[in-house]
Write a structure and sequence with these properties.
Blueprint (H helix, E strand, L loop, with lengths): L5 E6 L3 H16 L3 E2 L8 E6 L4 H13 L9 E5 H7 L2 H5 L3 E5 L7 H8 L20 E2 L13 E3 L2 E4 L13 E2 L6 E5 L1 E2 L10 H4 L4 E2 L2 H13 L4 E5 L19 H9 L6 E5 L8 H9 L6 E3 L7 H6 L6 H12 L6 E8 L6 H14 L3 E6 L17 H24 L5 E10 L4 E6 L4 E5 L11 E9 L3 E6 L2
Parallel strand pairs: 1-2, 1-3, 3-4, 4-5, 5-8, 10-13, 13-14, 15-16, 16-17, 20-22
Antiparallel strand pairs: 6-9, 7-8, 11-12, 18-19, 18-21, 19-20, 21-22
Helix pairs in contact: 8-9, 12-13
Bound molecules: S-adenosyl-L-homocysteine, iron/sulfur cluster and FE3-S4 cluster.
Length: about 475
Protein backbone atom coordinates (compact mmCIF):
# COMPACT_ATOMS: atom_id res chain seq x y z
CA UNK A 1 0.00 0.00 0.00
CA UNK A 2 3.13 2.20 0.52
CA UNK A 3 1.59 5.61 0.97
CA UNK A 4 -1.04 5.05 -1.68
CA UNK A 5 -4.21 7.01 -0.97
CA UNK A 6 -7.31 4.85 -1.20
CA UNK A 7 -10.99 5.45 -0.45
CA UNK A 8 -14.18 3.46 -0.14
CA UNK A 9 -17.51 5.23 -0.67
CA UNK A 10 -20.99 3.92 0.08
CA UNK A 11 -24.01 5.92 -1.04
CA UNK A 12 -27.49 6.00 0.50
CA UNK A 13 -30.56 7.94 -0.62
CA UNK A 14 -31.91 9.48 -3.80
CA UNK A 15 -30.52 10.02 -7.29
CA UNK A 16 -29.18 13.40 -6.23
CA UNK A 17 -26.95 11.62 -3.74
CA UNK A 18 -25.92 9.07 -6.35
CA UNK A 19 -24.85 11.89 -8.62
CA UNK A 20 -23.19 13.78 -5.75
CA UNK A 21 -21.12 10.66 -5.13
CA UNK A 22 -19.97 10.81 -8.75
CA UNK A 23 -18.79 14.35 -8.06
CA UNK A 24 -17.01 13.24 -4.87
CA UNK A 25 -15.37 10.31 -6.68
CA UNK A 26 -14.24 12.59 -9.54
CA UNK A 27 -12.75 15.04 -7.05
CA UNK A 28 -10.94 12.35 -5.06
CA UNK A 29 -9.55 10.60 -8.14
CA UNK A 30 -8.20 13.92 -9.32
CA UNK A 31 -6.55 14.34 -5.92
CA UNK A 32 -4.64 11.12 -6.50
CA UNK A 33 -6.84 8.75 -4.51
CA UNK A 34 -7.78 5.31 -5.81
CA UNK A 35 -11.28 3.93 -5.24
CA UNK A 36 -11.44 0.47 -3.68
CA UNK A 37 -14.36 -1.86 -3.25
CA UNK A 38 -14.14 -2.75 0.43
CA UNK A 39 -13.73 -0.97 3.73
CA UNK A 40 -10.79 -3.27 4.55
CA UNK A 41 -8.78 -2.09 1.53
CA UNK A 42 -9.41 1.61 2.13
CA UNK A 43 -7.49 4.30 4.00
CA UNK A 44 -10.43 6.67 3.88
CA UNK A 45 -13.99 5.42 4.37
CA UNK A 46 -16.80 7.71 3.29
CA UNK A 47 -20.57 7.43 3.67
CA UNK A 48 -22.79 9.67 1.56
CA UNK A 49 -25.88 9.69 3.72
CA UNK A 50 -29.65 10.16 3.52
CA UNK A 51 -31.93 11.51 6.21
CA UNK A 52 -35.33 11.28 4.55
CA UNK A 53 -36.66 8.71 7.04
CA UNK A 54 -35.33 7.64 10.42
CA UNK A 55 -34.28 4.22 9.10
CA UNK A 56 -32.11 5.83 6.44
CA UNK A 57 -30.39 7.98 9.04
CA UNK A 58 -29.77 5.04 11.37
CA UNK A 59 -28.01 3.08 8.62
CA UNK A 60 -24.94 5.26 8.69
CA UNK A 61 -24.57 5.06 12.45
CA UNK A 62 -24.84 1.27 12.23
CA UNK A 63 -22.13 1.19 9.57
CA UNK A 64 -19.89 3.46 11.64
CA UNK A 65 -20.37 1.26 14.71
CA UNK A 66 -19.61 -1.90 12.69
CA UNK A 67 -16.25 -0.58 11.50
CA UNK A 68 -15.21 1.47 14.53
CA UNK A 69 -12.41 -0.92 15.47
CA UNK A 70 -10.67 -0.28 12.14
CA UNK A 71 -9.70 3.17 13.36
CA UNK A 72 -6.86 1.48 15.25
CA UNK A 73 -5.35 0.60 11.83
CA UNK A 74 -5.16 4.31 10.99
CA UNK A 75 -8.24 4.38 8.76
CA UNK A 76 -10.14 7.63 8.61
CA UNK A 77 -13.94 7.94 8.46
CA UNK A 78 -16.00 10.67 6.84
CA UNK A 79 -19.73 11.39 6.78
CA UNK A 80 -21.08 13.27 3.77
CA UNK A 81 -24.56 14.25 2.55
CA UNK A 82 -27.84 14.93 4.25
CA UNK A 83 -27.14 13.44 7.69
CA UNK A 84 -23.83 15.37 7.76
CA UNK A 85 -25.65 18.60 7.00
CA UNK A 86 -28.42 17.86 9.47
CA UNK A 87 -26.36 16.66 12.43
CA UNK A 88 -23.19 18.69 11.81
CA UNK A 89 -20.55 18.42 14.48
CA UNK A 90 -22.88 16.36 16.68
CA UNK A 91 -21.70 13.42 14.54
CA UNK A 92 -18.28 13.66 16.22
CA UNK A 93 -20.01 13.11 19.56
CA UNK A 94 -22.10 10.15 18.38
CA UNK A 95 -19.21 8.56 16.49
CA UNK A 96 -15.89 9.90 17.82
CA UNK A 97 -13.86 7.98 15.22
CA UNK A 98 -15.29 10.19 12.45
CA UNK A 99 -12.86 12.88 11.35
CA UNK A 100 -14.64 14.47 8.36
CA UNK A 101 -18.19 15.82 8.21
CA UNK A 102 -19.18 17.46 4.94
CA UNK A 103 -22.53 18.58 3.49
CA UNK A 104 -23.41 18.46 -0.20
CA UNK A 105 -22.81 22.16 -0.79
CA UNK A 106 -19.16 21.81 0.23
CA UNK A 107 -17.87 19.05 -2.05
CA UNK A 108 -15.95 21.56 -4.10
CA UNK A 109 -13.87 22.20 -0.98
CA UNK A 110 -13.00 18.52 -0.52
CA UNK A 111 -9.41 18.93 -1.82
CA UNK A 112 -8.64 21.45 0.95
CA UNK A 113 -10.43 19.34 3.53
CA UNK A 114 -8.51 16.22 2.51
CA UNK A 115 -5.26 18.13 2.72
CA UNK A 116 -6.13 19.18 6.27
CA UNK A 117 -7.10 15.64 7.13
CA UNK A 118 -3.80 14.30 5.87
CA UNK A 119 -1.91 16.99 7.73
CA UNK A 120 -0.63 18.61 4.53
CA UNK A 121 -0.16 22.31 5.16
CA UNK A 122 -0.71 23.43 1.59
CA UNK A 123 -2.93 22.11 -1.10
CA UNK A 124 -1.04 19.76 -3.37
CA UNK A 125 -2.40 19.13 -6.77
CA UNK A 126 -2.90 15.44 -7.26
CA UNK A 127 -2.17 13.36 -10.29
CA UNK A 128 -5.26 12.67 -12.39
CA UNK A 129 -6.02 9.01 -12.13
CA UNK A 130 -8.19 7.09 -14.48
CA UNK A 131 -9.71 4.05 -12.89
CA UNK A 132 -10.79 1.27 -15.23
CA UNK A 133 -13.87 0.50 -13.14
CA UNK A 134 -15.10 4.05 -13.28
CA UNK A 135 -14.32 5.30 -16.73
CA UNK A 136 -12.85 8.72 -17.27
CA UNK A 137 -12.66 11.45 -14.72
CA UNK A 138 -14.36 14.16 -16.67
CA UNK A 139 -13.27 17.74 -16.15
CA UNK A 140 -16.35 19.82 -16.57
CA UNK A 141 -16.54 22.46 -19.21
CA UNK A 142 -14.61 25.43 -17.80
CA UNK A 143 -17.74 27.55 -17.76
CA UNK A 144 -19.24 25.14 -15.27
CA UNK A 145 -16.77 25.58 -12.47
CA UNK A 146 -18.30 27.52 -9.64
CA UNK A 147 -15.79 29.54 -7.69
CA UNK A 148 -16.92 30.07 -4.15
CA UNK A 149 -14.83 31.00 -1.15
CA UNK A 150 -13.83 27.86 0.70
CA UNK A 151 -15.37 27.56 4.10
CA UNK A 152 -13.43 24.84 5.80
CA UNK A 153 -13.34 24.65 9.55
CA UNK A 154 -10.65 22.67 11.31
CA UNK A 155 -11.33 21.34 14.77
CA UNK A 156 -8.25 19.49 15.98
CA UNK A 157 -7.84 16.36 13.90
CA UNK A 158 -11.35 16.84 12.54
CA UNK A 159 -12.54 18.74 9.50
CA UNK A 160 -16.04 20.00 8.82
CA UNK A 161 -17.46 21.41 5.63
CA UNK A 162 -20.94 22.59 6.48
CA UNK A 163 -21.19 25.33 3.99
CA UNK A 164 -23.51 28.24 3.77
CA UNK A 165 -26.16 26.64 1.61
CA UNK A 166 -27.71 29.99 0.80
CA UNK A 167 -25.13 30.94 -1.82
CA UNK A 168 -25.95 30.32 -5.45
CA UNK A 169 -22.91 28.79 -6.98
CA UNK A 170 -22.02 26.10 -4.59
CA UNK A 171 -23.08 22.76 -5.90
CA UNK A 172 -20.81 22.02 -8.80
CA UNK A 173 -17.45 20.36 -8.43
CA UNK A 174 -14.72 20.67 -11.01
CA UNK A 175 -14.54 16.94 -11.70
CA UNK A 176 -17.07 14.19 -11.91
CA UNK A 177 -16.68 10.45 -12.46
CA UNK A 178 -19.85 9.12 -13.99
CA UNK A 179 -20.28 5.43 -13.36
CA UNK A 180 -22.32 4.62 -16.47
CA UNK A 181 -20.89 5.50 -19.90
CA UNK A 182 -24.29 5.67 -21.64
CA UNK A 183 -26.64 7.58 -19.37
CA UNK A 184 -25.81 10.25 -16.85
CA UNK A 185 -27.27 12.78 -14.46
CA UNK A 186 -27.07 16.56 -14.60
CA UNK A 187 -28.12 18.59 -11.56
CA UNK A 188 -30.16 21.60 -12.70
CA UNK A 189 -31.48 22.83 -9.35
CA UNK A 190 -30.39 22.22 -5.77
CA UNK A 191 -32.34 22.58 -2.53
CA UNK A 192 -36.06 23.03 -1.97
CA UNK A 193 -38.25 25.92 -0.84
CA UNK A 194 -41.47 23.94 -0.48
CA UNK A 195 -41.21 22.93 3.19
CA UNK A 196 -43.74 20.11 3.08
CA UNK A 197 -44.64 19.48 6.72
CA UNK A 198 -42.93 16.07 6.93
CA UNK A 199 -39.80 16.68 4.89
CA UNK A 200 -36.22 17.19 5.96
CA UNK A 201 -34.84 18.14 2.52
CA UNK A 202 -35.20 21.95 2.84
CA UNK A 203 -33.08 21.66 5.99
CA UNK A 204 -30.44 19.33 4.58
CA UNK A 205 -30.09 20.76 1.09
CA UNK A 206 -30.99 24.37 1.78
CA UNK A 207 -32.61 26.99 -0.40
CA UNK A 208 -33.40 26.47 -4.08
CA UNK A 209 -30.53 27.46 -6.36
CA UNK A 210 -30.77 26.90 -10.13
CA UNK A 211 -27.87 26.47 -12.50
CA UNK A 212 -27.74 28.61 -15.62
CA UNK A 213 -29.26 26.98 -18.70
CA UNK A 214 -25.99 27.74 -20.55
CA UNK A 215 -24.06 25.71 -18.03
CA UNK A 216 -26.57 22.82 -18.13
CA UNK A 217 -26.51 22.78 -21.94
CA UNK A 218 -22.71 22.95 -22.04
CA UNK A 219 -22.57 19.87 -19.82
CA UNK A 220 -25.19 18.08 -21.95
CA UNK A 221 -23.16 18.78 -25.12
CA UNK A 222 -19.99 17.65 -23.40
CA UNK A 223 -21.71 14.41 -22.40
CA UNK A 224 -23.04 13.85 -25.92
CA UNK A 225 -19.47 14.31 -27.25
CA UNK A 226 -18.30 11.64 -24.81
CA UNK A 227 -20.91 9.22 -26.19
CA UNK A 228 -23.71 9.55 -23.65
CA UNK A 229 -27.15 9.13 -25.21
CA UNK A 230 -29.40 9.49 -22.17
CA UNK A 231 -29.51 12.40 -19.75
CA UNK A 232 -31.51 12.69 -16.59
CA UNK A 233 -32.05 16.20 -15.24
CA UNK A 234 -32.08 16.25 -11.46
CA UNK A 235 -33.52 18.43 -8.73
CA UNK A 236 -35.75 18.01 -5.67
CA UNK A 237 -38.26 20.10 -7.56
CA UNK A 238 -37.22 20.55 -11.19
CA UNK A 239 -40.43 22.43 -12.00
CA UNK A 240 -39.38 25.45 -9.96
CA UNK A 241 -36.21 25.79 -12.07
CA UNK A 242 -35.38 29.47 -12.68
CA UNK A 243 -32.60 30.31 -15.11
CA UNK A 244 -30.44 32.68 -13.04
CA UNK A 245 -28.48 34.32 -15.86
CA UNK A 246 -28.62 35.39 -19.47
CA UNK A 247 -30.17 38.32 -21.24
CA UNK A 248 -33.78 39.05 -20.31
CA UNK A 249 -35.85 37.13 -22.80
CA UNK A 250 -33.16 34.49 -23.29
CA UNK A 251 -33.62 32.92 -19.87
CA UNK A 252 -35.14 29.49 -20.18
CA UNK A 253 -38.13 28.06 -18.33
CA UNK A 254 -37.84 24.44 -17.21
CA UNK A 255 -39.85 23.24 -20.22
CA UNK A 256 -37.59 25.23 -22.58
CA UNK A 257 -34.47 23.84 -20.94
CA UNK A 258 -35.89 20.32 -21.20
CA UNK A 259 -36.60 20.79 -24.90
CA UNK A 260 -33.14 22.31 -25.50
CA UNK A 261 -31.40 19.35 -23.81
CA UNK A 262 -33.55 17.03 -25.93
CA UNK A 263 -32.31 18.79 -29.05
CA UNK A 264 -28.60 18.36 -28.28
CA UNK A 265 -27.22 16.28 -31.19
CA UNK A 266 -26.50 12.71 -30.11
CA UNK A 267 -28.93 12.72 -27.17
CA UNK A 268 -31.65 10.12 -27.65
CA UNK A 269 -33.42 10.18 -24.29
CA UNK A 270 -34.01 12.85 -21.66
CA UNK A 271 -35.66 12.23 -18.29
CA UNK A 272 -36.28 14.53 -15.36
CA UNK A 273 -37.00 14.04 -11.71
CA UNK A 274 -38.64 15.10 -9.41
CA UNK A 275 -41.68 17.16 -10.27
CA UNK A 276 -43.90 18.95 -7.79
CA UNK A 277 -47.60 19.11 -8.74
CA UNK A 278 -47.96 22.73 -7.67
CA UNK A 279 -45.29 23.90 -10.14
CA UNK A 280 -45.92 21.35 -12.90
CA UNK A 281 -46.92 23.32 -16.00
CA UNK A 282 -48.77 22.23 -19.10
CA UNK A 283 -45.78 23.47 -21.12
CA UNK A 284 -43.89 20.36 -19.98
CA UNK A 285 -46.44 18.17 -21.76
CA UNK A 286 -46.24 20.45 -24.81
CA UNK A 287 -42.47 19.94 -24.81
CA UNK A 288 -42.88 16.14 -24.59
CA UNK A 289 -45.30 16.34 -27.53
CA UNK A 290 -42.89 18.47 -29.58
CA UNK A 291 -39.53 16.82 -28.84
CA UNK A 292 -39.40 13.05 -29.48
CA UNK A 293 -36.26 12.53 -27.37
CA UNK A 294 -38.09 13.59 -24.18
CA UNK A 295 -39.13 10.36 -22.49
CA UNK A 296 -42.83 9.70 -22.13
CA UNK A 297 -42.68 9.29 -18.36
CA UNK A 298 -43.48 11.71 -15.53
CA UNK A 299 -42.90 11.02 -11.84
CA UNK A 300 -45.40 13.21 -10.02
CA UNK A 301 -45.47 12.51 -6.26
CA UNK A 302 -48.97 12.90 -4.81
CA UNK A 303 -48.38 11.74 -1.19
CA UNK A 304 -52.12 11.43 -0.40
CA UNK A 305 -55.51 11.37 -2.11
CA UNK A 306 -57.23 13.25 0.71
CA UNK A 307 -57.52 17.04 0.63
CA UNK A 308 -57.47 17.16 4.42
CA UNK A 309 -54.15 15.29 4.58
CA UNK A 310 -52.68 17.22 1.62
CA UNK A 311 -53.48 20.41 3.47
CA UNK A 312 -51.93 19.15 6.72
CA UNK A 313 -48.86 18.11 4.72
CA UNK A 314 -48.67 21.66 3.27
CA UNK A 315 -48.45 20.25 -0.23
CA UNK A 316 -50.06 23.38 -1.74
CA UNK A 317 -52.46 21.57 -4.09
CA UNK A 318 -55.79 19.77 -3.87
CA UNK A 319 -56.73 16.38 -5.21
CA UNK A 320 -58.64 18.13 -7.99
CA UNK A 321 -55.66 20.26 -9.01
CA UNK A 322 -53.46 17.16 -9.01
CA UNK A 323 -55.96 15.33 -11.23
CA UNK A 324 -55.96 18.28 -13.61
CA UNK A 325 -52.21 17.71 -14.17
CA UNK A 326 -52.90 14.02 -14.71
CA UNK A 327 -55.51 14.95 -17.34
CA UNK A 328 -52.85 17.00 -19.19
CA UNK A 329 -50.57 13.96 -19.23
CA UNK A 330 -53.34 11.72 -20.47
CA UNK A 331 -54.01 14.15 -23.32
CA UNK A 332 -50.37 13.92 -24.53
CA UNK A 333 -49.84 12.58 -28.05
CA UNK A 334 -47.71 9.70 -26.82
CA UNK A 335 -49.13 7.79 -23.86
CA UNK A 336 -47.25 9.26 -20.89
CA UNK A 337 -46.46 6.77 -18.15
CA UNK A 338 -47.10 8.19 -14.67
CA UNK A 339 -45.50 7.17 -11.37
CA UNK A 340 -45.82 8.63 -7.88
CA UNK A 341 -44.83 8.59 -4.20
CA UNK A 342 -47.32 8.03 -1.37
CA UNK A 343 -46.91 8.42 2.38
CA UNK A 344 -49.25 6.43 4.66
CA UNK A 345 -49.92 7.16 8.32
CA UNK A 346 -49.32 10.91 8.30
CA UNK A 347 -50.59 12.32 11.64
CA UNK A 348 -54.39 12.52 11.53
CA UNK A 349 -54.82 10.23 8.48
CA UNK A 350 -58.12 8.39 9.05
CA UNK A 351 -59.34 5.22 7.39
CA UNK A 352 -61.51 7.44 5.18
CA UNK A 353 -58.48 9.57 4.15
CA UNK A 354 -56.59 6.39 3.37
CA UNK A 355 -59.48 5.15 1.20
CA UNK A 356 -59.28 8.36 -0.77
CA UNK A 357 -55.65 7.55 -1.56
CA UNK A 358 -56.73 4.07 -2.73
CA UNK A 359 -59.41 5.56 -4.96
CA UNK A 360 -56.86 7.98 -6.41
CA UNK A 361 -54.68 5.03 -7.43
CA UNK A 362 -57.68 3.57 -9.30
CA UNK A 363 -58.50 6.90 -10.89
CA UNK A 364 -54.99 7.72 -12.14
CA UNK A 365 -53.77 4.25 -13.12
CA UNK A 366 -50.11 4.59 -12.17
CA UNK A 367 -47.37 2.45 -13.68
CA UNK A 368 -45.44 2.55 -10.41
CA UNK A 369 -45.91 3.80 -6.85
CA UNK A 370 -43.22 4.26 -4.20
CA UNK A 371 -44.87 3.87 -0.82
CA UNK A 372 -43.55 5.05 2.53
CA UNK A 373 -44.65 4.93 6.16
CA UNK A 374 -44.62 8.38 7.71
CA UNK A 375 -41.46 8.92 9.73
CA UNK A 376 -41.15 12.00 12.01
CA UNK A 377 -38.04 14.00 11.13
CA UNK A 378 -35.99 16.61 12.98
CA UNK A 379 -36.71 20.30 12.30
CA UNK A 380 -39.88 19.56 10.29
CA UNK A 381 -43.23 21.22 11.13
CA UNK A 382 -45.05 17.89 11.46
CA UNK A 383 -42.71 16.84 14.27
CA UNK A 384 -44.97 18.94 16.51
CA UNK A 385 -47.96 16.78 15.53
CA UNK A 386 -48.68 13.61 17.45
CA UNK A 387 -47.44 10.62 15.44
CA UNK A 388 -50.41 8.67 16.77
CA UNK A 389 -50.88 6.01 14.11
CA UNK A 390 -49.21 2.83 15.43
CA UNK A 391 -46.48 1.33 13.27
CA UNK A 392 -48.54 -1.83 12.85
CA UNK A 393 -51.40 0.18 11.37
CA UNK A 394 -49.00 2.05 9.07
CA UNK A 395 -47.69 -1.32 7.88
CA UNK A 396 -51.24 -2.56 7.26
CA UNK A 397 -52.10 0.49 5.16
CA UNK A 398 -48.86 0.11 3.26
CA UNK A 399 -49.67 -3.51 2.42
CA UNK A 400 -53.24 -2.75 1.36
CA UNK A 401 -51.95 0.04 -0.87
CA UNK A 402 -49.22 -2.08 -2.41
CA UNK A 403 -51.53 -4.98 -3.18
CA UNK A 404 -54.11 -2.63 -4.79
CA UNK A 405 -51.35 -1.09 -6.89
CA UNK A 406 -50.04 -4.53 -7.87
CA UNK A 407 -53.45 -5.39 -9.34
CA UNK A 408 -53.45 -2.10 -11.26
CA UNK A 409 -50.00 -2.78 -12.66
CA UNK A 410 -50.84 -6.35 -13.66
CA UNK A 411 -53.70 -5.00 -15.80
CA UNK A 412 -51.71 -2.07 -17.18
CA UNK A 413 -48.57 -4.03 -18.07
CA UNK A 414 -50.60 -6.77 -19.81
CA UNK A 415 -51.80 -4.25 -22.36
CA UNK A 416 -48.31 -4.00 -23.85
CA UNK A 417 -48.30 -7.65 -24.96
CA UNK A 418 -48.05 -7.77 -28.73
CA UNK A 419 -46.66 -4.25 -29.15
CA UNK A 420 -43.22 -3.25 -30.42
CA UNK A 421 -41.13 -1.19 -27.99
CA UNK A 422 -37.65 0.29 -28.27
CA UNK A 423 -35.33 -0.29 -25.33
CA UNK A 424 -31.92 0.89 -24.27
CA UNK A 425 -29.86 -2.19 -23.44
CA UNK A 426 -28.72 -1.96 -19.81
CA UNK A 427 -27.09 -5.32 -19.22
CA UNK A 428 -27.41 -9.05 -19.35
CA UNK A 429 -28.82 -11.65 -16.98
CA UNK A 430 -26.69 -14.71 -17.75
CA UNK A 431 -28.63 -17.13 -15.56
CA UNK A 432 -31.84 -16.36 -17.41
CA UNK A 433 -30.19 -15.96 -20.78
CA UNK A 434 -31.89 -12.57 -21.12
CA UNK A 435 -30.89 -9.03 -21.90
CA UNK A 436 -32.09 -6.24 -19.63
CA UNK A 437 -33.62 -3.22 -21.35
CA UNK A 438 -35.34 0.02 -20.33
CA UNK A 439 -38.22 1.58 -22.21
CA UNK A 440 -38.81 5.30 -22.69
CA UNK A 441 -41.69 4.80 -20.20
CA UNK A 442 -38.97 3.82 -17.69
CA UNK A 443 -40.10 0.21 -17.48
CA UNK A 444 -37.75 -2.74 -17.27
CA UNK A 445 -38.14 -4.97 -20.33
CA UNK A 446 -36.15 -8.21 -20.27
CA UNK A 447 -35.70 -9.78 -23.67
CA UNK A 448 -34.11 -12.61 -25.58
CA UNK A 449 -31.96 -12.15 -28.68
CA UNK A 450 -30.52 -14.66 -31.15
CA UNK A 451 -26.95 -15.63 -30.23
CA UNK A 452 -25.63 -14.32 -33.56
CA UNK A 453 -27.31 -10.93 -33.05
CA UNK A 454 -26.34 -10.11 -29.46
CA UNK A 455 -26.93 -6.44 -28.75
CA UNK A 456 -24.34 -4.22 -27.04
CA UNK A 457 -24.96 -2.59 -23.67
CA UNK A 458 -25.93 1.02 -24.37
CA UNK A 459 -27.47 0.19 -27.77
CA UNK A 460 -31.10 0.89 -28.67
CA UNK A 461 -33.00 -2.09 -30.04
CA UNK A 462 -36.55 -2.89 -31.07
CA UNK A 463 -38.36 -5.58 -29.11
CA UNK A 464 -41.72 -7.28 -29.33
CA UNK A 465 -43.49 -7.74 -25.98
CA UNK A 466 -44.50 -11.37 -25.35
CA UNK A 467 -45.26 -11.38 -21.63
CA UNK A 468 -45.86 -9.17 -18.62
CA UNK A 469 -45.34 -9.14 -14.85
CA UNK A 470 -46.43 -6.60 -12.22
CA UNK A 471 -43.13 -4.71 -12.49
CA UNK A 472 -41.60 -5.65 -15.82
CA UNK A 473 -42.20 -6.76 -19.38
CA UNK A 474 -40.81 -9.71 -21.31
CA UNK A 475 -39.86 -9.36 -24.95
CA UNK A 476 -37.98 -10.70 -27.95
CA UNK A 477 -35.56 -8.64 -29.95
CA UNK A 478 -36.87 -7.82 -33.41
CA UNK A 479 -34.13 -8.60 -35.92
N1 LIG B 1 -38.73 16.27 -3.89
C1 LIG B 1 -39.51 15.15 -4.10
C2 LIG B 1 -39.15 13.93 -3.29
C3 LIG B 1 -38.52 14.07 -1.98
S1 LIG B 1 -38.16 12.69 -1.00
C4 LIG B 1 -40.97 15.54 -3.93
O1 LIG B 1 -41.28 16.61 -3.55
O2 LIG B 1 -41.81 14.73 -4.18
C5 LIG B 1 -38.91 11.30 -1.76
C6 LIG B 1 -40.15 10.83 -1.10
O3 LIG B 1 -39.90 10.42 0.24
C7 LIG B 1 -41.25 11.85 -0.97
O4 LIG B 1 -41.94 12.03 -2.16
C8 LIG B 1 -42.10 11.27 0.13
O5 LIG B 1 -43.06 10.38 -0.41
C9 LIG B 1 -41.10 10.48 0.96
N2 LIG B 1 -40.86 11.14 2.25
C10 LIG B 1 -40.29 12.34 2.46
N3 LIG B 1 -40.26 12.62 3.78
C11 LIG B 1 -40.82 11.56 4.41
C12 LIG B 1 -41.09 11.26 5.80
N4 LIG B 1 -40.79 12.11 6.75
N5 LIG B 1 -41.69 10.08 6.07
C13 LIG B 1 -42.02 9.22 5.09
N6 LIG B 1 -41.79 9.44 3.79
C14 LIG B 1 -41.20 10.61 3.45
FE1 LIG C 1 -39.46 17.60 0.48
FE2 LIG C 1 -41.70 18.72 -0.32
FE3 LIG C 1 -39.35 19.71 -1.10
FE4 LIG C 1 -40.17 17.38 -2.05
S1 LIG C 1 -41.15 19.37 -2.37
S2 LIG C 1 -38.13 17.86 -1.28
S3 LIG C 1 -41.26 16.49 -0.33
S4 LIG C 1 -40.14 19.69 0.98
FE1 LIG D 1 -32.17 11.56 1.25
FE2 LIG D 1 -31.00 13.87 1.05
FE3 LIG D 1 -31.95 12.67 -1.10
S1 LIG D 1 -32.38 13.26 2.64
S2 LIG D 1 -33.67 11.53 -0.32
S3 LIG D 1 -30.31 11.95 0.16
S4 LIG D 1 -31.94 14.84 -0.68
Amino acid sequence: MSGEKTFYLETFGCQMNVHDSEKVIGTLLHEGYRQVESVEQAGLILYNTCSIRDKAEQKVFHRLADYKKLQAQGKKFGVLGCVAQQEGEKIFERAPHVSLVCGSASYRNLPQMLAQLEGRSTLQSGVPHVSPILGDVGRRDSGLVAQGSPLVRITGPRVTGLDDRETDQCFETEFTARTNPHRGYITIIEGCDKFCAYCVVPFTRGKERSRTSDSVLAEARQMADLGYTEIQLLGQNVNSYKDPAGKPGSRKTFAELLAAVGEVPGIKRVRFTTSHPRDFGRDIIDAIDAVPTLCDHVHLPVQSGSDKVLNAMQRLYTREQYLERIAWMKSAKRGVSITTDVIVGFPGETEEDFHQTLSLLDEVGYDGVFTFKYSPRPNTPSLALDDAIPDQEKSRRLEVLMSRQKEIQITRYKKYIGSNIEVMVEGRNESRNQWIGRTSHNKTLNFTAPADASPKVGAYVQTRVVGSFPNSLLGEMVV
